[in-house]
Amino acid sequence: MGEAKFLKNLKKILFSKPKDKFSAKGNLAIGEIAGRDSIAAIIRAFEQEDIDAVLPTIVHTGTEYGDCKNLKDNIEYLQKRLKDLGFSGKESVLSSITLKEPALWHALNGRFLSVLFERFGFCPFCLGCHLYMHLIRVPLAWHIGADKIISGERKSHAGSIKINQLPVVLDAYKEALSYAGVKLLFPLKEVISSDEIESLVGSDWKQGRRQLNCVLSSNYRALDDEVEYDEDALKSYFDEFALPVSKEVVKLWKEDKEVDYIKVVREILKG
């Protein structure tokens, strides 16, 4: 089997950049770019971690809609905000890279959805999608020598719960990337108050603004908008499915092999 198309495309993207672009930046981290929390997380990471520069990354899932220009604007805002807070601004924020691997998303979240629902008793769209967004950045981290990925996930949003940001879920994401030799940072994990987020990004940026929307948003909520979940079922989903799939995909990526994601998932589901 040949080298994965995804890895080939990634190398083409990186080949177009100056050779010293990444190596000269010292302690380089990858930043996940989405909405307000993602920008706040990067700012907090600069405050807490030994980071010299961040490579902003945008990941396409195929389920999002809206004005993609918002994401580019958010990166520019990050540059300005870092400078205002005493960091080096544009020198700390590199040119962004956009990633996508629809075949992986389909294998994790689409093709076997009925099997996953029957086996685990819930619809794992959001869990698998966020896992996809973390995983797809791993080969990039390897290629540029970054050992940290910064994510804006947090356990609670002023009391509002998201199923993909529960502690058991965030721990599973960290485990998946740890297997790949990459540290997944959640600088906002314990942040509950919106006031603390605003102290990082500014009070004029309200939650939910300047970000893309998802056609599957809140699919796990009940009729009264409450979030109902079985933590044991979530843990089983990761232990029996998502983590084994992640580790096998990472292993094949590391070997520079073309990955048949459907085959990987099918074999793990078969046991």
Descriptive key words:
271 residues; alpha/beta; Rossmann fold; five-stranded parallel beta sheet; two-stranded antiparallel ribbon; 12 helices; 49% helix; globular
The CATH superfamily of the domain at 5-101 and 129-217 turns out to be: HUPs
Count every beta strand, where a strand is a DSSP E run of 2 or more residues. 7
Global outline: globular
- In whole angstroms, the N-to-C terminal distance is 24 Å
| CATH fold topology of the domain at 5-101 and 129-217 | Rossmann fold
Strand fraction equals 5-15%
CATH architecture type of the domain at 5-101 and 129-217 = 3-Layer(aba) Sandwich
Report the order of strands and helices: HHEHEEHEHHHHEHEHEHH
Q: Main sheet: which strands, in order across?
A: 4-2-1-5-6
Q: Which stretches of 5+ consecutive residues score pLDDT under 50?
A: none
Briefly, what is this?
The protein is α/β, with parallel strands linked by helices and 271 residues long. It has helices at residues 5-15, 20-23, 36-48, 69-84, 102-109, 113-120, 125-135, 138-144, 167-179, 194-201, 231-254, 261-270; strands spanning 28-32, 53-59, 64-65, 97-99, 148-150, 183-185, 213-214.
